[in-house]
């Protein structure tokens, strides 16, 4: 009997009560009934994003809100800094290029975090309209020091945009306190619901920039979206069932409390890192590891693709392989969303079983023991 | 005890087996398991769209795919004809304007259908790159004669784009046979699933135009989407649960068979029209009524807003009111998707009860009897 466990960095598991809330007969979106749900969602999104500003909601993948950030903030010919230390940082550059924005890319070695001083230096040349960063780079498991970057950017005219698709609701992201101008996120990671919703929290500084914007846009028009959400409405038919699921999921998060949520993720990620070390495996990013997903290097002589495939197909434990140049060279275990200590223990115990079968030499049980130690703390 | 019946033109009811398919634990999208589902979905979408070409799938409202059609086919400064005889026709004009496209709008009186000869005449001036139309204008319940328009457009260099968000899977739309270049649709109407997915079927003639396109785009980039779907993949995280629901819904549609589906909708819409007449009510569009949604004029002295509200809040029967200038002046009953004769009978019997309470004079039961006659045929 194979039971399925999802430890991938998006989609992440959806709580049964959330799944069931979405399985109820559909309701119309222009009703007091749905409006009440949307109001609760908006309030709890503000709590989660730690912002007093409106959180815009789009029916799309997270990338839709990323595109929205670019085409609402930047006009053709504008200059922007993009931090690319992985697949999702590169996406900022791609979107800027699609809109005729001059992307000044800061290339960061995969597995390393950007040095805020490098951003500061690039900003000092002037004329930079925006800085695009990533809270947690899913492809490498690297956490960016957004707080430090915000300190740098807030002194300038530029706006700071953070892709928090991966990790919002898992790690700390103090939108207003740190001074982030646009936080973009998605539904299928820390928010514990299926993919199909994207979000954008927008600061007053960013709204001023948006007012002057000249890029073409329609579906992802932030102004249109703001005008609607202020009336607890959406400009287009919303993804009703996903918003109903989101309402249920946000209530679970709020009941646990953001501090506890963040602490839980910290502990899970630490357990995964300690297990890796106990198994003699190397972390891709020992110094800047995110608490949302951990990238671990595949040991010499082990087939990384086969490792991931065996765990999934023979044991039902879904983890992720590497992307691009890291294909076959790393594997990634998420600690994000609806997961707790036993999910981590399952993932590590399965990893041990499969590594053992593949001939990797280590002390069986050492990884699980290391996680238990962390969870006992 | 109030039971809820949804007779609105989107969202429409979702079959319980579809709801339950979406309530299963979520799976990852980069797995053979999901790829099999996506392959089945793609095959059945081709059946439903009646096309041999790829059907692109987007995680968005239908409007997203409309924007995609504009920004993939037209470059700034291009000229396009938009047919606007309602709220959704007007949307084509709005999107064209957002992208710097010169929209030559054909204004059609709300409740009337466009005369294909008018399009022919506008096309003869040359330099028109695209014609944007609506299969069923949800705001008025008007059906457009797409087949006749396609005859006209196919003789020119222009491409024909049809917004079939409302009515695909309910009325005839022979994409390849009629020669439509782009058919855009959404998930929450004839396709019987919740909102959040959009589609675009694209002809070889349209792909040639897309190749030359210069408008900025990223998330709705048709070429990127095509490249992915050819490998049974998606460029961005798909709305996994909605695609799983779509797979279940398309199987239901395919089992019933498209001819039977169309015949069922024809009969339901006829029953609604006959009921309206039997109750002494006037159709907004006696000559060009769609089989997907019927707009009925509110009788003199009756408060249209109150009628719709009373049916919904006191009886659980959701129908739609009028939009824009028709607010309070019409009400709309859908016959679209997961509905049959008894849904129509419920809607009409409830309409009679509420009209009676509101003091409207008619023979109680006459509407229901008229529907029964149609269903007996």
- The total beta strand count of chain A reads 14
Named CATH architecture of the largest domain in chain A: 3-Layer(aba) Sandwich
Measured distance between first and last alpha carbons of chain A: 33 Å
* Chain pair forming the biggest interface: A-B, 55 and 55 residues
**Quaternary structure annotation:** homodimer
Category from helices, strands and their pairing of chain A: alpha/beta
- Could you give a short account of the major beta sheet of chain A? 7 strands, mixed
As a whole number of angstroms, the C-alpha radius of gyration of chain A is 21 Å
Corresponding CATH superfamily of the largest domain in chain A: Type I PLP-dependent aspartate aminotransferase-like (Major domain)
Please report the number of helical segments of chain A: 14
Low-confidence stretches of chain A: none
User: What is the chain-wise order of helices and strands of chain A?
Assistant: EHHEHEHEHEEEHEHEEHHHHEHEEEHH
Q: Judging from the principal axes of the Cα atoms, what is the shape of chain A? A: globular
CATH C-level of the largest domain in chain A: Alpha Beta
What's the number of domains of chain A? 2
Task: Show the helix and strand layout.
The structure is a homodimer of 377-residue chains.
Chain A: E1 5-6, H1 16-22, H2 32-49, E2 55-59, H3 62-73, E3 79-84, H4 87-98, E4 102-107, H5 116-124, E5 128-134, E6 136-137, E7 142-143, H6 146-153, E8 159-163, H7 175-178, E9 182-186, E10 197-202, H8 204-211, H9 222-229, H10 240-256, H11 258-278, E11 293-297, H12 304-315, E12 317-318, E13 320-321, E14 330-334, H13 341-357, H14 366-376
